[in-house]
Amino acid sequence: MSATGIGAAVRRKEDLRFITGKGQYTDDVVRPGETRAVFVRSPHARARIKSVDAAEAKTMPGIVAVLTGADLASDKIGNLICGWMIHSKDGSPMNMAPHPALAATTVNHVGDAVAVVIAETIAQGRDAAEKVKIDYEVLPAVTDPSKAKSGPQIHDIAPKNTIYEWSLGDAKATEAAFAAAKHVTKLNIVNNRLAPNAIEPRAALAEYDAGTDHLTLWNTSQNPHVARLVISAFVGIAPEHKLRVIAPDVGGGFGSKIFIYPEEVVCLWAARKVVRPVKWTSDRTEAFITDAHGRDHVTQAELALDLNGKILALRAKTIANLGAYMSTFSSSVPTYLYATLLSGQYDIPQIYCEVDAVYTNTVPVDAYRGAGRPEATFVVERLVEIAAREMGLDPLDLRKRNFIKTFPHQTPVIMSYDAGDYNASLKKATEIGDVKGFGKRKRESARQGKLRGIGYSTYIEACGIAPSQAVGSLGAGVGLWESAEVRVNPTGTVEVLTGSHAHGQGHETTFAQLVSERLGIPFDNVAIIHGDTDKVQFGMGTYGSRSGAVGMSAIVKALDKIEAKAKKVAAHMLEAAEGDIEFKDGKFTVAGTDKSAAFGDVALNAYIAHKFSGQELEPGLKETSFYDPTNFTFPAGCHICEVEVDRDTGKTEIVNWTAVDDFGTVINPMIVEGQVHGGIAQGVGQALLEGVVYDTNGQLVSGSFMDYAMPHAHDLPSFKVETTMTRSPSNPLGIKGCGEAGAIAAPAAVINAITDAIGSEQVPMPATANTVWSALQKAAPRQAA
Amino acid sequence: MPAVSMTVNGKTVSGEVEARTLLVQFLRENLRLTGTHVGCDTSQCGACVVHVDGIAAKSCTTLALQCEGAKVTTIEGLAEPGGKLHPMQEAFREHHGLQCGYCTPGMIMAALDIVRRNGHDLDEHTIREQLDGNLCRCTGYHNIVKAIAAGAKAMA
Fold it and tell me: Per residue in A488-545, pLDDT tens?
């Protein structure tokens, strides 16, 4: 392994600009003559718009324009769409309601945009926005997903506010397995609604060039090409070739910046109308009421087991809240990203899951770090843990007894697991986490008056999203391959243009490690370029832990072609047969001789083209590829959480965290560990702190960092993070993906630990001090005493 | 509009601003020092932390006019003119104390204030408690804590 090759903990290229304040985020970009957009938003959860009066606002200082939903409609700007078709059990298509970028007739959640003020400065825009008079007829609202079907109907297209009633698995066979079971564990779960809260708020800057009739959008996007495609093909702002989308440095995404939002559409539309650049930057309050939220499931789940603790079947019925409108990929999250993972790491013969997706008068819900897989893991890992406790079995033994041990393994819910060793990660985690010593530590905690608990989560996820044919057959509107272009310059330096997008993942470093190792050239001679539709031909972007498994595989394919072409050039230079040229460590050698040419010389010769005729070999050294994976990848592992609960206050402290994950090949262990840390923090946030709260009128109660509990440094411990390794057979590098594991594994580990500590299973998330204290009061007297 | 002048990163600067202009707006929009970020509107996230007369301050909750005559240091003013990084900047890179980079300028400026108040030998508990005014959504703080401890030592 070289110091900068695959497997090395190379320090990141991108850090220099970030630690010196020279990053370029969307709000840092300034265009000449730029104006600022301020949105006028609904204060009501549901209302009919009777009138919009912008007359006074238009006369205020610095106001360039005030545009309304009626203006948008008269310009025939199309609606935002959800790009994944789900069919109900009865075969009917999902009920996708119209989602205009500015509401013209009704508003359906607090924060729904009704008008936009275009002003010289933000302050002037805000002053004028307050003077836009909107007459609302307030209508009754529903926010609780379990009450959505009986609540007031939000969209004409969706009776009982039902988007779809979907199922997966064999209901009858599952029923039969439950009937034969010796033990059934039942569990009711609310998977709490979360606000993603990337620290960089969303932003959009649109510029119109009237001379070329061309629009440019700088946008906080995880996938600029997908944004361009949707904005062109569905919203109809501009054809693809007349629209450039640039996602510069992006300050975290976690899913929330995948989606196409009203604000970027409005900025583009407005920029053409006022013929000046239009910039919008969200503030945090707006982020809470406009960024797509995550999770929000209400689930009843059951696990059937035989006398020996062998799992026979799993059954779940879930209501998924998708909010007021269907966001870009919202439909796929509680279906194909959720129910397909309900087998966990276990050999479960029968699984049946029903999911009802509903509209409510809340912010749209879509993918948030893990997206469906945390919800599935929480169901499975809570059920398994509780089943073990109920049956008097060791939770680890019950897991091991049911682990899948041979691969490939076809689950009853679509997925075919290709590789893994679940015992290996469990064994390593129990050793590092000193599970054997837990009893002693528990007694020590008891002497301090604390209740100590241990909780496990042996999770699985499907990443490397995704084989296009497979997702197409499940309703995806796009293919989920990735593209890459490798440009070797005449001087031998290399530029890689990738369709992946980094917003914290460090691709400029890890992708360069791959290229450096493969071509045998210095790490510093490689530049990774991403996030610009004018530079990169196409790309599906970054989410679903796909950039290593899919994005880097595309680069591998392009590098294969570079090597093949370079060998032809080298053969001419070295006057040898192409088949005799070998390439190793940056040098082309004629087999069995000492004749060789360095990579840089071959690159130069490819361009000067003096040694070969342009008729037999094209000059230049640049190759592209599109890589479509053959399967999902299946990262899996074992997380162990140890907590101490203060019996007087109910406050939970995480005192130990051990994570052992199998991510397949690891390119940069430093970056992988960082991804795990961040994921765990978000999972712990869900378990202990975070929860979006709406009141019954649909007002968002948790609408700022004062009210929504983000994890702080003092809420978290340091983590022990290790890996095990089975290669993924589904891509050339053997990568599985690491971005979401922590967020997927953590909530179940935390709640399993708390419930172990207090002896009660009734601990909802977030398990705040008040929640745990209340549960303690109802728990067995031996614990509460 | 009222005029304001102050020293930012060693240079005297002045400008005319509305009275309601925040220090962070003055830095970002008037001076184009965009390393200082805004991540919230309630003074919680700390992405906007700068030093005013040597003490950490949230520039999103400070009026530009309050800083008349003050010495302000932003993330852009930490490295030496030749480009040599401040030990705390170096520590964040060495210990992978950043991912998306958005909270990082505020984290580094806050870290320097933690060192100012608590010295160079910082334990994990102190660092975690003292970081209460800064949020990071990427790192889970694990490596930020390591970076601050190492940076503090390197500054001694």
Answer: 999 999 999 999 999 999 999 999 999 999 999 999 999 999 999 999 999 999 998 8
Judge: A712–B131 Cβ closer than 8 Å, yes or no.
Answer: yes
Given A14, A678, A713, which is nearest B138 (Cβ)? A678
Measure the CA angle with vertex A499, ends A496 and A501; round to 5°.
Answer: 95
Burial of A474 (0-12, 13-18, 19+ CB in 10 A): middle
Structure tokens at A192: 């709490």
Taking CB atoms and an 8 Å cutoff, what residues of chain A touch B37?
25, 199-200, 251
- From CA A21, how far away is CA B121, in angstroms rounded? 26
Q: How far is B69 from chain A (nearest CA, A)?
A: 24
B71-73 and B55-58 as β-strands: parallel, antiparallel, unpaired? Answer: unpaired
Q: Which of B18, B39, B104 has the CB atom closest to A201's CB atom?
A: B39
Burial track B72-108 (b if 16+ CB lie within 10 A, e otherwise):
bbbbbbbbeeeeebbbbbbbbbbbbbbbbbbbbbbbb
Tell whether B55 lies on the interface with A, counting CB pairs under 8 A.
no
Considering only CA atoms, which of A690, A658, A685, A670 is closest in space to residue A743?
Answer: A685
Flag whether residue B108 sits within 8 Å of chain A, measured between CB atoms. yes
Distances (CA, A) of A69 to A26, A66, A112, A288, A751: 26, 10, 11, 22, 45
State pLDDT tens for residues A5-59: 999 999 999 999 999 999 999 999 999 999 999 999 999 999 999 999 999 999 9
Task: Give the nearest partner residue to B139 out of A251, A505, A674, using CB atoms.
Answer: A674
Q: Considering only CB atoms, which chain B residues are within 8 Å of A197? A: 137
Whether residue A718 and residue B138 make contact (CB cut-off 8 A), yes or no, is no
CA distance linking residue A602 with residue A130, whole number of Å: 65
Structure tokens at A785: 């005493």
Q: What is the 3-state secondary structure (H, E, C) of A592-613?
A: CCCCEEEHHHHHHHHHHCCCCC
Question: Given pLDDT bands bounded at 50, 70 and 90, which one contains residue A783?
Answer: very low
Amino acid letter, residue A227: A
Chain B contacts of A671, Cβ < 8 Å? 96
| Residue range A329-347: mean pLDDT, rounded | 98
Strand A243-246, strand A409-410: pairing: unpaired
The answer to whether A758 touches A452, Cβ cutoff 8 Å, is no
Rounded to whole angstroms, the Cα distance separating A563 from A579 reads 12
Q: How many Å apart are CA A301 and CA A378, to the nearest integer?
A: 11
Is A426 within 8 Å of A758 (Cβ atoms)? no
Alpha helix segments (H runs only) across A167-283: 171-179, 224-230, 262-274
Count of CB atoms within 10 A of residue A600's CB?
17
Q: What are phi and psi of A250, to 5 degrees?
A: -120, 125
Contact A577, A464 (CB under 8 A): no
pTM: 0.97
Is A679 close to B37, i.e. CB distance below 8 A?
A: no
Distance from CA of A510 to the nearest CA of B (A): 13
Contact residues, chain A, for B33 at CB < 8 Å: 21
Binary contact (A678, B104; C-beta < 8 A): no
User: Cβ B101–A504 below 8 Å, yes or no?
Assistant: yes
